[in-house]
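Subject: design request, 175 residues
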C-alpha cells in the first residue's frame, strides 16, 4: 500500500483547500468530500456534524471522513467518507461510502487503496456489508468497487440527478 487513511486535521488544512481548488478547476463532482464544495475554509469544512445536519436536515446521518495520504511524501491524494447508518436516500442513491481522488493523481490505484483500507474500519463499526453506488458511466469507480469485492445488486434511475448518464449502479461489499 502506498497510502494511509487519516482523519482530517489542521496539519492538512492547506492541502484540503488545494484539493477543492483542483476539483473545481477540473469541473469534478465532490463525491465523498463531505460537502467540501460548499465551504470557504478548512475550519468551516471540518465542522462536519453541525454543517451537514443543517444541510440535510432529517436525512442527515453521521459520517466518518478520512484523507487518503501518500506515505512517500504525505501528500493528500483523496478523500473517502463512510456514512453510517444508511438513510432512505443513501440506501437508494448514495450508499455508505463515497470517495474521490485528485484529478492529477488518478489512474494510480489510489481509489482502490482508500476503499480497501476503509473496509476493515466499516467492520469495526459493526457493519456486515456496505453499499457503494456509482454512475453507470463511471468506469473507474465501477472497477474500484468490483476489485474490492462489490457485487452489483441493481441499477436505478438517477432521480436525484447525482451522476451524468441517468443510471446509478448499486453494489454491496460483504465484510
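Subject: RE: design request

Done. Sequence follows.
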Amino acid at each position: 500500500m502506498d497510502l494511509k487513511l487519516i482523519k482530517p486535521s489542521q496539519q492538512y488544512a492547506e492541502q484540503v483547500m488545494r484539493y477543492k481548488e483542483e476539483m473545481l478547476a477540473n469541473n469534478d463532482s465532490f463525491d465523498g468530500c463531505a460537502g467540501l464544495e460548499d465551504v470557504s475554509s478548512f475550519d468551516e469544512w471540518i465542522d462536519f456534524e453541525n454543517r451537514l445536519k443543517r444541510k440535510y436536515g432529517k436525512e442527515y446521518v453521521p459520517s466518518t471522513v478520512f484523507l487518503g495520504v501518500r506515505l512517500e511524501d504525505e501528500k493528500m491524494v483523496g478523500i473517502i467518507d463512510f456514512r453510517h447508518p444508511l438513510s432512505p436516500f443513501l440506501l437508494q442513491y448514495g450508499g455508505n461510502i463515497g470517495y474521490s481522488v485528485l484529478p492529477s493523481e488518478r489512474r494510480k490505484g489510489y481509489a482502490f487503496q482508500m476503499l480497501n483500507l476503509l473496509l476493515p474500519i466499516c467492520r469495526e463499526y459493526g457493519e456486515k456489508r456496505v453499499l457503494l453506488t456509482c454512475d453507470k458511466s463511471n468506469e473507474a469507480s465501477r472497477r474500484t468497487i468490483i476489485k474490492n469485492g462489490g457485487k452489483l445488486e441493481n441499477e436505478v434511475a438517477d432521480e436525484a440527478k447525482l451522476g451524468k448518464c441517468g443510471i446509478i449502479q448499486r453494489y454491496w461489499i460483504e465484510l
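Residues 3-174 form a domain with the Aminopeptidase fold (CATH 3.40.630.30).
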